[in-house]
Amino acid sequence: MERRNFLLGLVALAAGSATMAVATTKAEAAPVAAPSGALREAASPESRSTLPDGTPIEKAQYYRDRPYRGRPRRRRREVCRITRNRFGRPVRVCRSVW
């Protein structure tokens, strides 16, 4: 028996058993509980406009035309030239400049 085929079969067996273990378990939904009184109060529109201590919430709007992206940066560009190496053959040499 070849080692690769043996290992492939072993991995396939492990994957198949894991798949069967997941497939045989049944998932059940949890029962829906009725909302308590505190949740109903929190969902009411009157309570959304005040803080828990009764202080009213001020409405404010913030607007900016575009998000701040930092200072503009210059991109480096690559400059290439053809020179001759020590054997006399042409070679392209590139370097990055601002």
Description of the structure:
- The chain has 98 residues and is an alpha+beta fold.
- It is 34% helix and 16% strand.
- The chain is built from three helices and two strands.
- It has helices at residues 3-24, 37-43, 45-48, and strands spanning 77-84, 90-97.
- The protein has a two-stranded antiparallel ribbon.
- The longest helix is centred in the N-terminal third of the chain and has 22 residues, at 3-24.
- The model has no long low-confidence stretch (mean pLDDT 79).
> Uncertain runs with pLDDT below 50, 5 residues or more?
none
Secondary structure tally: strands: 2
Number of helices: 3
Strand residue percentage? 15-25%
Overall form? flat
The rounded Rg comes to 34 Å
Order of helices and strands: HHHEE
Oligomer: single chain
Structural class: alpha+beta
Query: What is the mean predicted local confidence, pLDDT?
Result: 79
Main sheet record: 2 strands, antiparallel
Please estimate the helix content: 25-40%
Distance between the termini: 62 Å
Summarize the structure.
With 98 residues, the protein is of the alpha+beta class.
Summarize the helices and strands and which ones pair or pack.
Blueprint: H1 3-24, H2 37-43, H3 45-48, E1 77-84, E2 90-97
Antiparallel strand pairs: 1-2
Task: Provide the descriptors you would attach to this structure in a database record.
two-stranded antiparallel sheet, 98 residues, flat, alpha+beta
